[in-house]
Design brief:
Blueprint: H1 19-32, E1 41-42, H2 45-52, H3 56-68, E2 72-75, E3 79-82, H4 86-111, H5 116-129, E4 139-144, H6 150-161, E5 164-169, H7 177-186, E6 189-193, H8 197-203, E7 211-214, E8 216-218, H9 220-227, E9 234-239, H10 242-254, E10 261-266, H11 270-279, E11 282-285, H12 287-296, E12 301-303, E13 306-308, H13 310-324
Parallel strand pairs: 4-5, 4-6, 6-7, 9-10, 9-11, 11-12
Antiparallel strand pairs: 1-3, 2-3, 8-13
């Protein structure tokens, strides 16, 4: 589709950054925040140049740089299109995090009456002065399947290590073996979950790189809550896929709560999901699918509170400390 919305990009010749950098970084923000979506067509170089009062060659250079970064495709005679790939996904993930920090910083600078352009220019200079002292973030590869709440594990790893986490799905390992190996080789740490520990260790044994295993468990308040259910109560456990739901239900069974009738469901099977919601007395959803299900059945759906095992949290903290030193 072609973008028919107004592009709120600007070019300010008074700033100490080149207009090329200004335009490129604003487009990356718009893509990163989803205001320009994969599949959207950018204005032609002529249109963008007229809009900003720039030379057409300047816009072409920016589009070419973004193409080389894997964000755009330039089709002669058809225009410039935002791609739908890992590069765009990674940009969106990083810019969503950046936005929270930038908004907070802008608010604090405004409250202190500090001019924003002066602040950020000075901030860049400060980074350059201290660049030699900076530590590269820990590069972590998380290997997990698409049916479990891989987002939970990724968020926990990011929280505990402040690292850059790349998720590689077990289901994609065979078809993307070369790419997966390259990602592994470039990483500092490989992390997987208990569900796939043996498979991952065997597959990448030749790399002679340690595979660290983490696990999660159920929050105690939920166990207390479930213990009060009437015998025979129908309870569904829902994750991204059925295997994730089965893991959730198994945690409850392992805790000795056998008086309820458990059902495991995946959000990827809409027919089974709708049937389970209709027939269940209560539905517990992992964080990855909770918001979606809460809108469907607000009176039945509750959050399944996963927590990282203490030993796993300790291990991640230790990995972070080792990297810093």
């Amino acid at each position: 589709m072609r973008i028919d919305k107004e592009l709120l990009v600007k070019a300010d010749s008074k700033l100490n950054f080149s207009v090329n950098t200004q335009l490129k970084e604003q487009i990356k923000w718009l893509i990163g925040l989803g205001r320009i979506a994969p599949g959207d067509m950018l204005p032609s170089a002529n249109q963008m140049a007229d809009l900003l009062g720039l030379n057409r060659n300047t816009v072409n250079l920016v589009y070419t740089q973004l193409r080389d970064e894997g964000l755009l495709a330039m089709h002669k005679g058809r225009g410039t299109q935002v791609l739908n790939n890992d590069h765009v996904s990674e940009l969106r993930n990083s810019r969503e995090k950046m936005q929270q920090l930038v908004v907070k910083t802008i608010e604090e600078a405004a409250a202190m009456r500090i001019p924003l352009t002066d602040f950020f220019t000075a901030g860049l200079a400060y980074v350059l002065l201290n660049e030699s002292e900076s530590i590269e973030p820990l590069r972590v590869v998380l290997i997990e399947c698409k049916e479990h709440d891989h987002l939970f594990y990724r968020q926990q790893i990011e929280r505990m290590t402040n690292g850059e986490v790349t998720t590689v799905f077990v289901e994609d390992l065979s078809s993307a073996e070369g790419k997966a190996l390259q990602i592994m080789e470039q990483s500092d740490v490989i992390v997987t979950t208990l569900n796939h520990a043996e498979e991952v260790k065997q597959r990448f044994a030749s790399m002679k790189k340690a595979v660290h295993v983490i696990g999660a468990t159920i929050g105690m308040p939920l166990l207390v809550e479930l213990s009060k259910f009437k015998p025979g109560s129908k309870v569904s456990f829902v994750c991204l896929g059925k295997a994730g739901g089965q893991w959730m239900a198994r945690n409850v069974l392992d805790a000795g709560l056998e008086h309820i009738e458990s059902h495991a469901v995946g959000c990827d099977n809409r027919a089974q999901l709708e049937k389970a919601i209709q027939q269940s007395d209560k539905v517990y959803a992992s964080a990855a699918v909770y918001d979606e299900l809460k809108e469907i059945a607000p009176d039945k759906v509750e959050l399944y509170p996963m927590v990282l095992e203490r030993s796993s949290a300790n291990m991640l903290e230790e990995l972070s400390k080792r990297h810093k030193h």
